[in-house]
Write a structure and sequence with these properties.
The protein has 60 residues and is mostly helical. It has a domain at 18-45. The protein contains three helices and no strands.
Length: 60
């Protein structure tokens, strides 16, 4: 029954297309991470900590 539904709706094509999209996106992100300079990654890693010395309850 499930195979008949997949054949009628074209779900197989959509499943393959979504998997190819995911793999392509994963490859792009992986390449960007490996080509990034360590200084840039270090700066991004510290972004969340830049305002850490300020108390959230005190307003200047």
């Amino acid at each position: 029954m499930l195979q008949e539904l997949a054949a009628r709706t074209g779900a197989t094509g959509w499943a393959i297309a979504s998997m190819l999209f995911f793999i392509g996106f994963y490859v792009v992100i992986t390449v960007r991470v490996f080509r990034a300079r360590p200084e840039d990654l270090e700066a991004r890693a510290r972004l969340a900590l830049e305002g850490d010395d300020e108390s959230p309850t005190t307003k200047a």
